[in-house]
Write a structure and sequence with these properties.
With 203 residues, this protein is of the alpha/beta class. It is 34% helix and 21% strand. The protein has one domain: Alpha-Beta Complex (Spore Coat Polysaccharide Biosynthesis Protein SpsA, Chain A), CATH 3.90.550. It has a seven-stranded mixed beta sheet, sandwiched between helices. Helix 3 packs across helix 5. The relative contact order is 0.17. The C terminus is likely disordered.
């Protein structure tokens, strides 16, 4: 795809509540942290990467990219992670993904860019054919000012902010499994099985 003026933002700043407090981005898959697999998928699509993390920052820094912590304490949510990581970025576009989706689409940036262009919008969100995937999004860096104002006013809900922006939707109905993630104990095995299947297919 080449260089496109995009910074990839990997969201790894959550509490991992549904995972018993585990830091999801550091859960091992095929001997490597999930976040490392996400880096592999993002790297060809972006100019650089920033990782949003509030715990284990040294380990995330070991992946080779800047790590940004939330400006507010007590894990204020993914929008705060986008804001803090976005403040580090210098590119016109920001491509956001969670840290626990190791098979995210290889053309995620391209499809989201095309959706922005088609809809004449500064923000696009992925749709897997059944539901919106609100943490897979591409936005113009200028939107960070509006996001900061939303957060300063006490806003936290991702859907509420997205609705206020009327984003374009990018169709990923041909690959819904690409958004498989780690949400509950036992998902490790499901992701590992899918990862092994994908490796077999591409061998």
């Amino acid at each position: 795809m080449g260089k496109t003026g995009i910074t990839g933002i990997i969201l790894a700043g959550g509490r991992g509540t549904r995972m018993g407090g585990r830091d999801k981005g550091l859960v091992a898959l095929a001997g490597r942290p999930l976040a490392a697999h996400v880096v592999d998928r993002l790297r060809p699509q972006v100019d650089t990467i920033v990782i949003s993390a509030n715990r284990n920052r040294e380990r995330y820094a070991g992946l080779g990219y800047p790590v940004a912590a939330d400006a507010a304490p007590d894990f204020p949510g993914p929008l705060a992670g986008i804001a803090s990581a976005g403040a580090v970025a210098r590119t016109p576009w920001l491509l956001v993904t969670p840290c626990d989706t190791p098979r995210l689409p290889a053309d995620l940036a391209q499809r989201l860019l095309e959706a922005c262009a088609a809809g004449h919008r500064p923000l696009a969100v992925a749709h897997d054919g059944a539901r919106l995937q609100p943490l897979f999004l591409l936005l113009r860096r200028e939107l960070l000012a509006d996001l900061a104002a939303f957060l300063a006013g006490g806003g936290r809900a991702v859907y509420r902010w997205l609705d206020s922006q009327q984003p374009a939707r990018a169709d990923f109905s041909d690959c819904p499994a690409a958004f498989g993630n780690l949400n509950a104990p036992g998902d490790d095995d499901r992701l590992a099985a899918h990862h092994t299947t994908e490796d077999t297919i591409h061998t």
